[in-house]
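Final report, Chapter 2: Outcomes

The project's central promise was a pipeline that accepts a single protein chain and returns its three-dimensional structure in a standardized token representation, suitable for archiving and comparison. That pipeline is now operational. To close this chapter, we reproduce one record exactly as it appears in the project archive, with the input sequence first and the structure output second.
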Amino acid sequence: MNKLDLYTGLGGFVVAGDRVGINTIFTSEIDTFNCKLIDQKLELENAGDVKNVCVPEQSHPYNALIEREDFVPAEKYGFSSLCIEDFYEGVMEYPDIITGGFPCQNVSQANLTGSNAGIEGESSSLVEEQLRIVSALEPKYCVFENAKNLVNRGLDRILEKLENLGYEAQWGTVSATAFGYPHYRHRTFLVAYLPSTKVGMLGIDIFNSMKQYTVNPGEFKLPLPHEDELWVKDFATVKLPRSIKYRTKRINSLGNAIIPDIAEAIFNVLLDAESETISKLEIIALDDAYKKTEISNLSNSKNKYGFLKMADAGCLKGSYLYESKCRDTLLNPTNSQYAGLYSTLIAKDGNNNFTCKSRLTRPGKLGGLVGSIMSLGVDEGGLNPNFCEWMMGYDLDYTLLPL
């Protein structure tokens, strides 16, 4: 299978695809550090701004420059053009899968200002670009990822638009703990697919089928802070933060990243379905465990922010939504299910060293991983990017640039 990756970040979906043999044909990313990583480590072409992906050639901002100055955009700007004509004319293969974790700033509860805007916010509204590209290329599958709060900040509208495009879909909230990482990091994953795919025709339950790739509840790949405090302090801490090049940018990019193991499990289910390895898969049963709603009636039950509050898991089939009535405590544990976990890595953890006392007074787990390590009595230095890579499921030095 071939995959187009949008909002690539540091490449979590790329890593997951590589693990299972799914080829990434193009990426789309604008962050300077992530662009360097895509170029130097992943060695993939980058289309840059998602707004310029799959647009007509005449509408692409490079077009006039190419005609006027006769230059290669990638050589001057570092970005390659990926226009709709590239697919029409066979220059680029159509992707079987489109993946993307669109910006979460207006959805995430970790953002203490502006999260009520949901997918109508300045950043999170970029999901519309992902939907535009899905509409243009009609892939078999598309995978969306965002903060867990997406279920009541615009998931309903995304599902309505997918239904209009002829897709069925399943969504679920998945925590890092399900794959052995000792922090919750609940995230909403949405998998859409054409009814003609094997997932659609066979009625595969994607999220229940994922469980064959999870760990036993409470089993973790790293020691918890109280289990080996000295080891945690030693591994998590860099005494001289400025001695590590790009340390802040490496950590902040990891704070925005997905856990590759989750995407890998989703991809494995899709591949098993395509090869009809049915013995490894669960069939979805749309019974009394689901609340059934006709999608045309959604406008009758919006919350005060203008969005429907959805269940943490469910599916879209035909013109109906089926919302799960039961919480899956393996994939989506409560915040009190496991004792002594770390706070998850957040996007600004690289900006704060262990001298930043405010990390200890943030509500809930909003002090991030910095706050967790400080709670052990660490008051100098900063986070080690290798520790952050391990916590997020990436190889050690994955974010270390060769140049």
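Archive annotation: The chain has a mean pLDDT of 91.
This record, like all others produced under the grant, will remain available to the consortium after the project formally closes.
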